[in-house]
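Exam revision sheet. Question 4 asks you to relate a sequence to its structure. Input first:
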Amino acid sequence: MSRIEINHVTLFAFGALFYWVLVLLIEPNGPAFATLPDSTIHRTLLVMAGIYSAFLIGDSAGKLLRFKPRPAPKLAGFAVMLCICWITALTFIALKRHELFVPYGDNLARGTLTAITILFLIVALIRASSREEFKLKNIYFSSYFALAILLLMMGQRLYFVSSLLILACYRSCYFKRFKVQRLLIAAAAGIGMVLSIGVLRAGDTTLTLNSLAINLVSEPVYTSISLFDYLKYHHLPVFAFPWPLLFQFGNLVPSFLWPNKAAVLLNTDVYSPLGANNSFIGWMTNFGIVGSMLVALALGFWLRWLRSKNTCLSRVSYSMLCGGLAFNFFRNDFGISVVKDMVENSILLPAILFFVLLLVGSLPFRFRLSRGVRLYIRHPRASSSQAFNADTKIREVPATNTTEEASSARAAPIKP
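Answer key, structure tokens:
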């Protein structure tokens, strides 16, 4: 049976079709949607096709790169890092417990809780990548899913779906690809669950195929309000300098240092009553038509390079980047999708946590339990003398497994 890999090409293609092509083919009508002539729609579709083609060309060029596999570095301190994350999460939940389940538009606590949840995911991914394994049955991923379910109950559906895409990308790219049949079944079940939550959140207590389909199509359609307004009242520049994107890097400043940064940085002259901005606007205002194709070319090349590098840190950053390509990258302003999701959450935070854990792993001392204590924990019925004798025998028997045998027992990553 054929298998499929969930990578940057498949997720970028899904986002382009879902948020760009679909809405222009549907041409939704209503008081919020600007009416466009057919020539404008055809010209926009050609530009979108050019951006996507450039992305594929860059990806194809990146396939020419070859890297030698590197052994995973020695990292330590995951348990301490997890405890710090839990202390932060529980403290925030206790302080904001009355604001967690207020209406979605008035919920100011979900942004901070989303950032804390992303830290849990990064720690779990770095630990799995350092061990070159894909195992979800541990306290690190369990801790993440506990908070992710809370976010899902608060209405953060797309962030939850993006995290599932991150894990799917990590597994299929570096360990084992998905069977097409099982992937379709899992995707249908996941989409049905997310759409059901959306229907119930809208106040509809009856779940029908019609209501689920409307909830599915409403996501790209409502996001396209800004796209239709931009295409009617603005021209498509050939080249543009990314002054808006450079200014939006101020979004890296923490909210407690700049409380009203969203009102300053994300203020645009495009009509978007529901808050979501189609990414095509960001491409045009920052790069223009030809500039967008060049940037797409570089983006496809860079993501393929990151995919092929196959190191502990690159596996984490690449998976995080791919998880946001399908939805957040195409429905948010570049100040959120590029600056927050890609630069901060996918590159800076994993790199900072990775080097902190690497520093702890390089320390000359460790806080470890003695062999006798570990043996007593495993076999509590054994007496202390038996534990001492067993520990003595363990010390006398030389190790039989070599480093090569231990490394071969791990799951071998898929070569790019």
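Marking note for examiners. The CA atoms of residues 102 and 154 lie 8 Å apart.
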